[in-house]
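Here's a chain:
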Amino acid sequence: MNKSFYSSFCALCSLLILSFATGCGETAKKDNFAELITDGATARSAGHEDRAANSLKEAFELLPPQSDPKRVACVNKLYPETLALASALRQSGRFSLSKTMLDKAIEIESECTLPAKKSATELRAETEKVGEMELSILKRADKAKELRHELKQLKLTTRDLVKQFDSGDFEQVARDGRAHLEVLRKTRGAASNAYCDARRLVIDSLLHQGNTEAALKLLEDDVPELNKFNDKDLANADEEAVESALFLSPLLAQIADLQLSLGRNAEAEKSAARSLQIAQVLGGKANPDAASSKLVLATILKEKGRDKEALELARDALPLLSKSKRQQANRVRCLYTVAQLEDSLGQKREAKRDFDKLIAEAESHEQRGTSGISLAIGAAFYRTLGDQQKYANLKDKAIKIAQRKSESPNSVRVIYETLGDSSVRFSKFSEALPYYEIALKNADRLQKERLEKKIAACKKNKSVAS
């Protein structure tokens, strides 16, 4: 009895296991074409792209033979769903599987009779292009990473040069900086902030050594690379023209400033006018680069004796220069130009206000290259007002700054020449003589000619003008 029951139980279990295995096989692999299409669409909508692809591949295997009338209806269901999956795969960046599904669709493309159907062949060609584009983007991204690393290293080199500059090693900065500039020029070009920052450092180093002509030559060498656009393209906001112009305008303003300091006024006027023209196209009257160009033009007009026009230009430039951090040195120069012109035109109240502002800034926020000059000019002004105590106080402060190693030869020359001119104005020729002699030691070739004439006149107890 027990053996009979046991045998019956085993037979029943075997039957159940066989039935279960058969059922699992049917679940694992559907043999219903319509169910496979539905499963593929559902899986695609849920983001299960691999499952969708497997279902559609199985559906392809279950397509009726070409002789079967039902085949066309099946193709019309399978073809659009295969294209939809291929499109979803492409959007998610799975180009290889997308192309596989498109290849399957191409097999039945000619049999599909749906109106306005999409071409699997054309879609595959587009996918090839997109894939190539994506690959190109990835390569460029890798290159961009390399460039970012390279730029970081170049910036570190620039920072090291800044430290050398701050320590007063101007000769070393000028020498190493030139080599650094060549690397930046080849990798970044003249139309880049990294290059301009490093170039400014080299220019300042050359000026601190009194080598104005070398500094000017360095700036002029960059003009051809940036001056390749025409004004019509710039007016039409051509991208390349605008990019070049953004760097050319301040470059020409710097060139004009150095040309002016070398006495090449005609060239300076031309460079400043061109810089101003470009700056106004780029940013109108509110462009700080336009302001620095106006300052150069105002200085030239002042030297020509056209004080009213010069004052108007300088006053226009001053508020714009005040808004730009990198134009602070020019802002100070502009302020004392305005004050001097106001004094020259008899606007004593305005002149005193601006001279006091200039002096207060120089005393509270000392700036290399401008503070000493501001104090010397302020001293000369208060001497004309008869305030000898304030004159002496400001003069001593200006001389103290001039005696520092950190001051450039040009700043030292301007400080002592200003004090000398002030002494000559009051016919104190013996007092002016040592000021002019110190200025002469810090002057370049053209400035020396002017100072030698002043020294010769002082020895005869008269001014150059007389």
